[in-house]
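Regression test attached.
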Amino acid sequence: MRESTIMKIHYGTAIAAVALVAVHVLIRVTHGFAESLEYESVIANYRYVPYAIMLELILVLLSVHGFNGLRVILLELRQGRLYEKSVSYGCMAAMIGLIAYGSRTIIVTNMGLV
Amino acid sequence: MGRDGKKGIGGMADPRRYGIERVAYWLMRLSGLGLLAYFVAHIYETSNILRGRVGWDEILQMTQTIEGHIILALVIGMCVFHTVNGIRVMLGHGGVWVGRPARPDYPYNPASQNYRHKIGIYSAIILAAVAMMYGLAVLFGE
């Protein structure tokens, strides 16, 4: 993929993530920070489908943005065909792994399997 | 100076002689790495909900400490700085606030490093500090 396209994705995920994370944080603060972290409250959040979808979106957006940001930082430090490919595929693998791990939490809790 | 006349990472890290823009460059990268580390830790932390009430309460006890609150306040600060400075960088890449093209005359001041972007960087730092103070008030005020 062209670097210009990757940077557009990087900026797009940033803008979308800012909006969704703001909603996520506002819900914590408006419901009382300590109360919103109680077990029943967290379970209720995960079981509410629109909120679960929002958490999944945040997970994907921040994973893409975060690991692409890490890739950019690592490519600034050193260059080389093998190094660049290793960094790109390594970041991609880490991104997919984190999305899979986070999605497991969201899906299992949303389906009431906890 | 290192081999081949290159200063390497030390040269990149040196904020002297390059103004607030170099500081913003480093703060952007450090806050990005800090936020990524927090994000991975947060995903792990929330996965403990799968261990039931006992597992959740255990992990919550680990994070709801003075150290945990201070780390969270730092995360709030990094998040606000990264967001505000990121918007400034995006606008700059889009050609906003970078000045008009002109003939390069002595003392060769770069048009893109103008007062608008400097204000943007200082605003990001001030807003991050304010958000951290608010975060500390919420976390320790409960």
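Expected vs. actual: identical. Chain A touches chain B at residues 7, 11, 14-15, 18, 21, 29, 32-34, 37, 39, 42-43, 46, 59, 62-63, 66-67, 69-70, 73, 76-77, 98, 101-102, 104-105, 108-109, 114 (CB under 8 Å).
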